[in-house]
């Protein structure tokens, strides 16, 4: 059928509309499999409507790409999508031929055939094809060939591979597959070992495998180590002018070694006078050619591979040469009447053997001249200079290699030495913040120079010390100005020195000096020399600490009595190093610390039974700051027994008695709670535990020596029942109640008895009084005699004649009887 241009454009637009909207259709996808780089044909067939050929358009789509990768329409060149140029063409009716397959060609393809004269409800032709492009594995990330690790560090090896189908990655170590564990993790091909051990060192293989093949990547894991010098340099002696060779061989993993040589701790590359004559070979050997006398010294080889710290080894190079004179002064002066030196500046290796002297062109033997001596440095010392010592001198040194020659002629002149005209006083004593002036003057030819210095080497204050015309003035005196000063009078003839002591009062005390320490196993005795006290009474405090503990704090102890300059510190650890220093103080405050000294206590003689004693000679148990020394054996036969008073824990001493036991500790706990303990238990092998609550208990016993603790004994278990606890408790309560009741009854009985006794005594007194009053009356009533007046008391006068009845003033027994009877009747 003939179509004009407008119809063709309309058909093309209709095609794109069909692509974007899509008619409802369903295809069963066909599967096509091909290898990477090969060709593949994606099938597509169609049928004309009613079997009559009509114009049509063919489109191939790939899932994920919006624009068709291939469009064909008769009479027009085909449209080919990006990336498919030269690789796609039609074959057969509508099938697509895809050549040189790439991995990204894999996917789902749709073939659509559209007819221009069909109505919308007609079935659309085409196909759905899934293309599988199989490719052997290939690595996108490979682990390195060699990996250096340190034991205990983390190791990570990364491995990733691509391919179709997706390859599986497996790790092997020494041909054994690796599996994940607590210390090994494998995630997406990456291998992680969190803590490397010796067993992890070896050959690792990352294997990527799929149906099309497999590939491997090998990695060797090696323990990294710092550089180690295997052949160190050795001391060497060479004759001047010869070449010297200092060997320094090393090995390391990794083996990227760097060598550096130092001369007396200075890099040789920075010493221009030496570097031009040296060469360092690749194996680290140092060549010096030629050698010079100045080359003698310490040579250090330093090797490093980036791991750890550089390794060092040193050797001494000795360059020998004949003895030589290095300097010949034209004129030398000797002080008349004083000691003087004629110098000969000599250098020799080996040292010079002797020096020949000449004076005024004649041999001069020091031994034959009184008061002249040869010094070890080759110079001549004259004990007392006289005018005859003046002249021209020449020295010639010799050693085992001979001499390089004699010195130049040196003129020695004898002159009067300088003298002090004014000397400072022996001592100056001033208050702090005051001013002092110390004079010093001298004269001589040539005119001498005068300057001051401190004997301790410290510098004079720049702001407060002024030297003028030989005088030294120090303003605003401070504590640090205290000390000895020297006035130096110097010219070419001689150097004279005089000294004075400056005492600055009203300050804190100065630091003690000459501190010494003597130690035993458990104590240290210190002694020192007191320094100036600032004109106030001073006392001392000793500071000490244990060195072997990290950041160990300082401990202090005051010295008693205050004026003492020796003191002993007890309760120290045996076989341990300590630091000591002494601090002085007075009423103005603390002074300065003495220099710190160190002392190490001796080992403890535990076999000899030596125990520490304090200043009073009493034995004590020192505080164990660090367990050390031999440990006692564990206690034996631990038993626990219930008694009326509590639980009795008993044990036997350790079987091995070589380490003496100082004390014991008993530990107990219930279930999973932490251990608690009783102690220390001295001179006993049992302990009575009271007031324990019901429960299941575990017990164990530890033996302690003076300086250590042994292993625990075997544990003993005991269940303390609630019944026994309640019985014990009830017994105690019952005993208390019964005791209280008995005490109460006893108190009542005693009270009743006391009341009865008191009442009885009162009644007896009353009866007696009553009888004395009423009995005569009753007797009169009964026909007896009546007595007038008051009754007389009955008195026992002693034995008397039996009274006669009717005698006035006497009472008969019958009267008393009748009186008592009548009294009872009345009552």
UniProtKB/TrEMBL annotation:
Identify the taxonomic lineage of the organism of origin.
Eukaryota, Metazoa, Ecdysozoa, Arthropoda, Chelicerata
The answer to whether the entry has keyword Protease is: no
Pfam family membership, one: V-set
Q: Which residues cross the membrane?
A: 732-755
| Naturally occurring in which organism (per UniProt) | Limulus polyphemus
Taking every annotated instance into account, which residue ranges of this chain make up the domain Ig-like?
Answer: 24-129, 137-222, 226-318, 322-413, 418-498
Q: Signal sequence span per UniProt?
A: 1-22
What is the name of this protein?
A: Protein turtle-like isoform X1
Q: Which residues form the Fibronectin type-III domain?
A: 508-605, 631-724
Annotated keywords: Immunoglobulin domain, Membrane, Signal, Transmembrane, Transmembrane helix
Residues of the region (Disordered) are: 781-805
> Out of the domains of life, which is the source?
Eukaryota
Q: Which SMART domains match?
A: FN3, IG, IGc2, IGv
